[in-house]
Amino acid sequence: MKLLMTYDYGPQAMAEIRALGHEVLYIRESGLETSKQDLSDIEVLVCYNPFKDLDLEAMPALRYILLSSIGIDQLPAERVMARNLVVTNNRGGYSKPMGEWIVWNLLSAFKNSAWFYDQQRKKEWKITTDVLELVGKTIGFLGTGTIAQEAAKRLSGFEVRRIGLNTHGKPHEAFDQVYSADDKLEFAGCCDAVVIALPQTAQTEHFVNQAFLDHMKPDAVLINISRGAVLDEAALVMALGKERFRSVHLDVFDQEPLPKDHPLWEIDRVHITPHNSWISEQRNNRRFELILENLKRLADGEQLLNIVDVRRGY
After folding, report:
1. pLDDT tens, 95-108?
2. For the whole model, what pTM was predicted?
3. Residue 288 domain flag
4. Contact at 8 Å (CB) between 193 and 127?
5. Is the dihedral of CA 290, 293, 298, 301 positive or negative?
6. CATH number of the structural domain spanning residue 57
7. Do 85 and 131 lie in a common domain?
8. pLDDT digits (tens, 9 = 90+) for 14-57
9. 291 CB-contact burial (10 Å; exposed 0-12 / middle 13-18 / buried 19+)
10. Which is the most buried residue in 16, 178, 221, 265, by most CB within 10 A?
C-alpha cells in the first residue's frame, strides 16, 4: 500500500515500514501547504493534524488514517464519515507518562509543593502544617480509559479510594466503584480530588460545569489532562473567586496557547502547564510501535488496533 507519513521516525524505522511492502512518501505536516506532490494514489495517511493544509478530496484512494494522537477532535469528522474512512488512534500510547503526571500533581497538591518552592525562592526557613496525606482520600476519575487506568494503577500503593465515572457506570477492575454520567453530581461530592480524563465529544463539552464545581468539596483538588473544552473555564474562574479548591492543575485549555491576559494566570492556586503531560523519552518509541503493528496488520489483511468511532468521538 502507498502511505503518506507526516513525521519522520528515522531511517531505521522507515526502512522497517518499507520492508513490510509499503511504499512510503514523507512530507512533514508544516510542508503540506506548499507541497505539489501528487497524492491521488495514497491509501494510508499516518499523521497527527495535517487537516488544515491537506485536502482529503485530493486523495481519492485514501482508505485509512492512522493518528499519532489519542484525541481525534482535529479530524474533519463529516468528511471522514462520508467516505467511511477507517481511523485509528494512539490510545494507550501516552497513558503511562500521563498516569505519572496525575500522581505528581496529586502529591504536589496535597503536600503543598508550591508553598515550599515559594519559601525556597524567598530563602525563608519555615515549617507548615498544611501538608496532607493521600491515605484515605477519594480520588475520582472522570473517564475510565487507559489514562485513568494507568493513574489508578500507580495510586494502588497510596491507600486511596479510587472511583471512576463513565457513560453507563460500567465497572472496571482499576476502580473501587464506577458511577454513571447521570450521577455526576453525587460523584463530584464524594471526591477529595477530581481528575478529568474524558475525551472531547459533543456530549462531554463543559461536562465539568458550574453545577459540578459547586458540588465538589470546597477544599478539593481539580486536575485536567484531557481537553480544555470538557471544563467550563468561566465557571472555574468564578468558583476560584469564591476561594474554592485547594489547588487546580490544568494542562489543557479551551484556547492554546493560553492567552497572556487570561485570568487563570493570576490565581495562585492554579498551576498551569503547556499541554505537556503526554511527553516522555519513550513517546516516539511507543507511538511508532503501534503504527508499525497496524501497518503489519494492513499488510497481512488483519483487524487494526485502536479503531475509533468517529461519530462518538473516541
Report:
1. 999 999 999 999 99
2. 0.93
3. yes
4. no
5. negative
6. 3.40.50.720
7. no
8. 999 999 999 999 999 999 999 999 999 999 999 999 999 999 99
9. buried
10. 221
